Amino acid sequence: QDTHAWSGRFSEPVSELVKKYTASVGFDYRLAPFDIDGSLAHAAMLHRAGVLSDDDLSAIRRGMAEILDDIRAGRFEWRLDLEDVHMNIERRLTDKIGDAGKRLHTGRSRNDQVATDIRLWLRDQIDLIGGLVGELQTALLDLAEQHAETAMPGFTHLQVAQPVTFGHHLLAYVEMLARDAERLADCRKRVNRLPLGAAALAGTTYPIDRHYTAELLGFDDVCQNSLDAVSDRDFAIEFCAAASLVMTHLSRLSEELVLWMSPSVGFIDIADRFCTGSSIMPQKKNPDVPELVRGKSGRVSGHLVGLLMLMKSQPLAYNKDNQEDKEPLFDTADTLVDTLRIYADMMRGITVKPAAMRRAVLQGFATATDLADYLVKKGLPFRDSHEVVARAVRHAEQRGVDLADLPLADLQSFSPLVAEDIYAVLTPEGSLAQRDHVGGTAPNQVRAQIARWRSR
Ligand code: ARG
Question: Which pLDDT score is estimated for 98?
């Protein structure tokens, strides 16, 4: 019994091994609802163009509704010998409604069909992910709001640099995520164009109305070149690039969470429900979730590179290589969705330890730059001031105290410009309060940024 749509051309059936090797239904079955939407729009367009009769269209609608019900209820039996989601659904439709089912594929190819399905699916995922990015931003803003004044050391080279507020530090990630959301929204514009009508590669001889199909499916426009329409996967690559950046940002934050939770740093604690213990060391509480996010970021970037490699040598137009686009794309979206969900939850389960942050900011001479700026404001050129402060730091280091703990006479021995008001500048709070301009770490500015984000 011939099961394939093209078997008249062949003298022997494909081998079992080849069947398994070429089938995609094991993963592309998840495109089913989008495949059905695409088919219904295509059928409605063919009907309007006079290619399908009233009876054919209503039979197709009825059959597809039943098929969708069966799929949702888990009753649909996916057949490997029917290769992919498209032919499984089409065969079932024909079993149900007869010739009308066989007419559905008029003026269409699986090449433009699959390209349409992926775009519909990805558009949906982008909208979901956009919302999740927003939720994570909100969780970060909530935490930042509680810590608009909490001083911690800011680092460069992982060495103590200058005091920053913890709120300011968190807001840096809100910025990154905002760019991520912009990138996803931009990518969506190019996802949201209709390939249907390109057919196999050259277009079709039927009087089709692609703009009508596009309108029915909510596409902004149609792909303007049939060869490009069936072979373009730029949109998938762009999505994976945007996803890789989201994951890269979360990987950086994860690295910080792991560091901050290490007992020798002790800036934060992560709620138990995001951590695991050790099977041998009874004292352990490991930050597994941030570690896994860091690990999974590599996997998503790997998918980006995988898709670039998939596309780089393909001649026009459609090649079977393209079937390999789905697993990396699906896994990218799934990983991103799960990661964003868990992350927003985890940020709400973080306990901040301001006392430990304050202890750390008082070590490492975080306010040395403030002393230098103070002297500059009293007339000393910055390079000279830098040298004066370097000597004062060495002196304090030898005595094992912070700059703010040096007696006035000691500080004055390095520069006669130092007066009693220096101590207001040398505390973490003094240092923070002075950085009071757009983008600065002063508590005022942190609160203003939070208000700006909230109003968006
Ligand atoms: N399963 C195929 C894919 O994912 C559908 C398109 C097949 N087209 C073809 N000419 N073999 O790309």
Answer: 98
